[in-house]
Each structure stands twice: as structure tokens, then as C-alpha cells.
Amino acid sequence: VQLIESGGGLVQAGGSLRLSCAVSGRTFSSYDIAWFRQAPGKEREFVAATSRGDDNTYYADSVKGRFTISRDNAKNTVLLQMNSLKPEDTAVYYCAARDVYYGGSYYQAGHLYDYWGQGTQVTVSS
Asked: Which residues does 54 contact at the CB level (< 8 Å), separation at least 6?
């Protein structure tokens, strides 16, 4: 399984970016897919996730109402639309996937994801 992120860049506070994660390998629809981020000197944190089957979505409180995760099973792609960006959103954003089913729970647990992309840098200037 390969995950390739794109869409990062430099944007001013209040602006928008859309990240894309292209997933290759086994059946895309059988994965839970999530976005995590890691800022310099900080631990990796959960951002958002989309579940297999029902396409439910989950968000960290810090991005709720500003970010939207969506998946296109026909294109094997997951998007993260980021609006109203803040300087504290600056980080490397990683796409992650897992095929083990945890009963629709634990989406925030990074150690439960088996496949990771290389990351894409998002920088928000004030």
C-alpha cells in the first residue's frame, strides 16, 4: 500500500488549502483513512478521519468546523479541505491508512495505522 500526499504550501492566516492523499494497493474502500500532523518540537496529533463502509467522519476539536475530510472511492483519494487556517495549523501533514477493523473506534490512535505517506508541509503565516 502506498500513500502519496500533495497540496501543501504556504498560505496566509484565514486562507485555505486542500490536501490530497492518493492510495494505491488493495481495495481502497476497505481502509479507514486519517490525517495526522506534526509541528516542530511537538508530538504527532490526530486531525481527521473517514471510516470505511459508512464514510463517517471524525475531527479533532481544534479543526472542527474549519476542516472537512472526504473520500472518493472511485478515485482512491482522500481530500482534506482546510479553511480559515491559523498559524497554529502549521505542520507536516501525514495521510495514514489501516485495514484492521477496530469496531468503528480509535480513529485518533496513530499507532493503529499501518500505512503512512511521506508527508506534506503546510505553513500558515500570520
From this structure: none
Given its phi and psi angles, is residue 22 left (phi above 0), alpha (psi -120 to 50 degrees) or beta?
Answer: beta
Question: For position 23, what pLDDT does the model report?
Answer: 94
Residue showing cell 500533495: 6
26, pLDDT greater than 80 = no
Rounded Cα–Cα distance for residues 10 and 82 (Å):
13
Backbone φ and ψ for 112, nearest 5 degrees, come out as -90, 0
C-alpha cell at 52: 470505511
| Residue 122 and residue 90 in contact, taking contact as beta carbons nearer than 8 Å | yes
Reading the block at residue 9, the C-alpha cell is 504550501
- Could you identify the residue written with the cell 511521506? 118
Of 77, 64, 89, the closest CA to residue 29 belongs to 77
pLDDT tens, position by position, 64-76: 999 999 998 889 9
Residues facing residue 27 across a β-bridge: none
